[in-house]
Amino acid sequence: MATGKNLLFTPGVYILDETLRITRPNTIVFGLGIPSLKPTKGQSAISVADVDGVKISGLIIDAGEISSPSLVNIGPTGSKADHSANPTFLYDLTVRTGGTASGKNEMGVVINSSNVVVDHIWIWRADHGIGAGWTTNPTKTGLLVNGNRVTIYGLFNVHHKEYQTLWNGNGGRVYMYQSEMPYDVPNQAAWMSGKTAGFASYKVTDTVTSHEAWGVGIYCFFRDASVIAHSAIEAPSVSGVKFHDLTTVWLDGKPGSQIAHIINDQGGRVFRNSAATISRQTLIHY
Fold first, then answer.
1. CA 1 to CA 238: how far, in whole Å?
2. Selected catalytic residue, list 18, 180, 212, 234
3. Do 23 and 51 contact (CB within 8 A), yes or no?
4. Is 18 noted as a catalytic residue in this protein?
5. Are the beta carbons of 257 and 272 closer than 8 angstroms?
6. Dihedral sign, CA of 75, 81, 84, 87?
7. Torsion angle of C-alpha atoms 139, 170, 281, 220, degrees rounded to 10
8. Where are the beta strands (DSSP E) in 88-240?
9. Domain assignments of the chain as residue spans, ordered by start
10. Is-contact 65 105, C-beta < 8 A?
11. Mode of pairing for the β-strands spanning 258-259 and 270-271
12. Which residues of the chain are under the pLDDT cut of 50?
């Protein structure tokens, strides 16, 4: 890759003792038959410089046994370049912590570069399978976005121990979001965001002035304890931040568990009731 070549992975499991560093613009990394990449020394599997036009597609990224700060890193911290004329694209990626073996990481995907486009990504912390447990396969957040003007089509982000999605950049857009809160929260004390009960799935930080999302579905199945999530989404109440067609669903779980609000303090709770096991609330616009 350093000499300008692209990279094709054929089917298989690739054990990495170094990060795959993409430093040249317009590099293509393509997985044929959905191969798996796994770091072994607590490093990221893939790291991309703040360059134009990189394309990464068709891979599973598995966490290793030594915790990585992130598994996929798009742009270094503090990236400032404008890539609007030639964005980086991420297509059909699965980022996985546990399930086939014990794995650990702080973040799944970190996007520091601006103008990144993502088309279908699934970021999953295992709630079942090999190595799945509250302390055995920890990961705090699936997706952290620091870059501006990042667009995602089909974001599936589930079971991480804190925020599933944490968005710091301006101009973000998400079209279709599906997320389950962690199944295996052991008790409320273990799942507190400061003094707030639980962690929102989708968090847009208070410094953001422009963000928009369409078709946001957030679900809970608090399997192991009766816990409360105060809100499915947290976002600043400013005119440039807009959410459309929001749904929360209580699938199953311990009696008394619930998502109390859809966004901030708005929208009714979803919980176990006598009428049905599945409880649903919707909010059209925020």
1. 43
2. 180
3. yes
4. no
5. yes
6. negative
7. 0
8. 89-97, 105-111, 117-125, 141-145, 151-158, 165-167, 172-180, 192-193, 196-197, 202-204, 211-222, 228-229, 233-234
9. 7-285
10. no
11. antiparallel
12. none
What three-state secondary structure class fits 148? coil
Q: What is the spatial distance between Cα 273 and Cα 243, in angstroms, rounded to a whole number?
A: 27
CA 268/CA 260 separation, integer angstroms: 6
The tokens for 128 are 């079942």
pTM of this structure: 0.96
3-class DSSP state for residue 188? Answer: helix
Please check whether residue 218 is in contact with residue 176, taking contact to mean a CB–CB distance below 8 angstroms: no
Q: Which of 248, 148, 244, 151 is nearest to 198 (CA)?
A: 248
| Helices and strands (H and E) in the chain: how many | 0, 25
Tokens of 146: 């620091």
For 157-193, what is each residue's pLDDT tens digit?
999 999 999 999 999 999 999 999 999 999 999 999 9
Cα 152 to Cα 93: distance, rounded to the nearest angstrom:
12
55-98 pLDDT, tens digit per residue, is 999 999 999 999 999 999 999 999 999 999 999 999 999 999 99
CATH topology of domain 7-285: Pectate Lyase C-like (2.160.20)
